[in-house]
Amino acid sequence: MASQELHAKAIEALVALNAAIKNIRLYPPASAMVQKSIERVLSFLEVIFQSEAELTVSESEKNLLILGAPLTEKEQQKPQVTAFIATLLDFSVKNLTFKQGVTLPELEILMQNLSRKAEEVKAEGGLQSVLSGSDLPHIGLGEKVYMAVDQDQKVVPKTQEFSTQEPVSKKEKINQFKTGLNNLLRGKLEPLDDPYFLNSLPKAIDQLIDKGKLKTVDILVEHATAGFKSASPESRQAISTTLQQISQKLPAEKSASLKNALQAEAPSATAAPGTDKMPAPEPPVQDQVDTREAQIDDLVAAGDTDAAVKLLFELLVAYAKKKNFRKAEELRDRLYDVDAMALTEIVKAGEIIEQEKSESIDQNHLEVWPALYDKLSSEEASALFYAQEEVSYEADQTIFAQGQKNTNLYFITQGSLKLVYRDGERETLIKTLEKGDMAGHTTFFTISICTTSLTTLSSVKMSVLPQAALEPWQDDFPALKSKLEDYCLKLEKSGDIIKAKGLERRKHPRFGVNGKILIQLLNRKQQPMGKPFKGVFADISEGGLCFYIITSKQETARMLLGRRLGLTFLIPTRAAPLKTLQHGTVLCVNYQLKNEYSIHVSFDDELPGGIAGAIKRLKDVKSE
Fold first, then answer.
1. Using CA atoms, how far apart are residues 550 and 595, in angstroms rounded to an integer?
2. Which of 123-132, 420-429, 609-618 has the highest mean pLDDT?
């Protein structure tokens, strides 16, 4: 991998790492959002490990170094880079190394700790001390110290204390292959650069055929063929060999089709070694991806902006027609960087990408929710469709659980599920959901915890829209979120069904109280975190209370959801006000008006009898 490309991939890995740390701070560890964020980090690292045994990032005088090379001034100013530098400084980490073979559990342990308050970690002896008891053979802290700069502006390492790289275990290889297989199913072509993945793919295809999963095989073969077409010359032979092995396992008609595709696209790659055949013609421009991208870098360096824009546009169109929209959009963004005034190409590129997206949208999906998609423009429909990810579940799997967070919106395309409400040992069926129904809308647009649980009754397929998809729409499709929310507001809500069935969730009446309340965030050990802050009392019951806070940042309010709080407040009595301290959990955060949020807390233990009696005598009385 060229050093410039490696540098870019390393920055992408850091951006993904920073996003994962942020998601861990916002969502429960077991949430899909957190798991996907960590998997994304690993996918970037695996690309880097194809050419490097390790990746080391270091902080030097508040600047970031990657493999000893300093970032450019423009790169240093990226928000994600500055945020990552701040994290390293907060935890007093001079350098961080990821070694080949690093696993998801290792990354999760590291990022869970980096998402904590630095003060907490320092109180426990610092990050190195905290991680010393964890099994992290492929992650190192403080193992390289960069001191001097040579004539090529590369920072030279003073010490390198790595031990010999431990071999990757068979179990880790299998897990990496499974990850690669899922990525290829989603159209990501990076796994095709891994020799182990290519060697294992024919056997996996054989097993899938034996299990009758022919549609999955078709998708894998289609994506692998697309990867072959866009691969660099040095990778094409390996992918071609794998595809030829796969063709022998396919039905006759599909086998012949695959062989013809290989021969038509790259006769030189499929020719037997050692033959005296004349060299085959060069592949089309769009198939020489790595070479062309390198040419773009050379043209930009030489100042030939017009030629660079022309070549960028050609590559972008090729990727769009191959339905690799992620790469096409990356190249469109690069058009801005190369020449922000190339407006004709930039506008046309956007139109071509949207047209290709529109033509490849699954019409069956649109027909299931016509009332929703009919309200959207073609661009909005494409944005909504491509923001979703298709997932499958077996019977008796929980999608979201009562009392937990859910940040996904589910479009059910196959199978059936049950929505249930639990009250102690009692479980009540709220509704059965099937193809054409949606789930998760009650919590998707609000900051609240699930009041019901969703479990599969059969094998289920759904399209999942993550809450994180809403943010990019604000600039590109400002009306899309409101249109989707308006549609969801008309859907039946679980809370309304609970009330209709007489299963009211509140066990105790609430009483209005005026006054202040002191709030203290608590950690897992019930110890105070940070400084306490004040809120305004709204109401109280024997089992919980509600208070108001004012903040201009929704994320600040959102972070309170699911948090443990210590609450100090006064209960008016006929004598003197009664000071009370209760611990509880935030179950719901609702936006009111003018940056005001209501915070709803459930107590760990109901209030003692004397205080409960005082509450029952309350009726809009004032607390000092």
1. 6
2. 123-132
